[in-house]
Design a protein that fits this description.
By secondary structure, the protein is of the alpha/beta class. It is built from five helices and 16 strands. The structure holds flavin-adenine dinucleotide and FE2/S2 (inorganic) cluster.
Length: 242
């Protein structure tokens, strides 16, 4: 973990309430897709956690949805602003399969930009099921069309399959050897019930963000584990939903 002062070099709207921020600095500590960072905002005591959407040795991209006051403040920050960010948190997606399926719901798409690039570098085009409530919420579709075998689902049927990503998967003939999933808890729970053969990226309300407070613990078959330290990525077979 490193405590860094990073400079915003881009902060733009991608869709309805989703923004993309690019920060500059020494990011050489980041090693795996879907590690996360913890951002300190001026008017807030608790840091806000965000997945590493993409990174190079000197840039960090986060994709965030404006939900409350913290993310609202972020959406107003100007290029040139410096932000205090804890970097190099969590485990990330460390094991790469040969025939991957990515399942993303809503802003759960964020951690997959870099994972898709990592698969592509190995000569693998992953299958992506990307679900949203409605068509105007989708982001970066050109990128996903080029770099994945893409299936879209919407709750209101305005684009792609009408229904959610897991129902689409259940009714499809998609073959995969492992899945990689991030999205609303209900989606992840339904996916795990359908198949245990993959990885879930979980979210939890966080206090410290680096393993000290136990505030983000979840139940697993191996006892309680911290989303910020042992996660956010867990084997689906390990997670216990109650
Ligand atoms: C490991 C991890 C990775 C994340 N990655 C991303 C990401 O890449 N992009 C993104 O947009 N968001 C991500 N989140 C969620 C993000 O941290 C919250 O949306 C953000 O902190 C909200 O801040 P706020 O001040 O705007 O909202 P608040 O005022 O704190 O809360 C507004 C609403 O959001 C809910 N909320 C706040 N924090 C969380 C949380 N951690 N999990 C679930 N609901 C929450 C609250 O219950 C409330 O309803 C991630 C969370 C975790 C734990
Ligand atoms: S947030 Fe403190 S241990 Fe995870």
């Amino acid at each position: 973990m490193k405590d860094l002062l990073l400079e915003i070099i881009d902060n733009k709207k991608l869709s309805n309430s989703i923004y993309q921020m690019v920060l500059k600095g020494d990011l050489s500590i980041i090693k795996y897709p879907n590690e996360f960072v913890n951002v300190k905002l001026k008017d807030f005591y608790l840091r806000r956690p965000f997945s590493v959407a993409d990174y190079t040795t000197n840039t960090l991209t986060i994709i965030y949805k404006v939900l409350g006051e913290g993310t609202k403040e972020m959406s107003c920050l100007q290029v040139g602003t410096k932000l205090n960010v804890l970097v190099g948190l969590g485990n990330g997606f460390r094991e790469l399969s040969n025939n991957p399926l990515i399942v993303a719901g809503g802003i759960g798409i964020a951690p997959f930009i870099n994972l898709i690039k990592v698969f592509n570098k190995k000569g693998i085009k992953p299958t992506l099921i990307y679900g949203e409530q409605t068509k105007d919420n989708f982001i970066l579709l050109d990128f996903f069309k080029e770099h994945t075998n893409l299936y879209l689902t919407t709750d209101d049927g305005s684009l792609g399959y009408k229904g959610n990503a897991v129902n689409f998967l259940k009714n499809s003939q998609i073959n995969f050897d492992k899945y990689y999933a991030c999205g609303p808890n209900l989606m992840l729970k339904a996916l795990k019930e359908y198949s245990d053969n993959g990885y879930l990226s979980l979210e939890a309300r966080m206090g410290c963000g680096f393993g000290a407070c136990m505030g983000c613990s979840i139940k697993t078959i191996n006892g309680y584990k911290r989303v910020c330290k042992e996660g956010p990525v867990f084997k689906a077979s390990e997670v216990i939903y109650e």
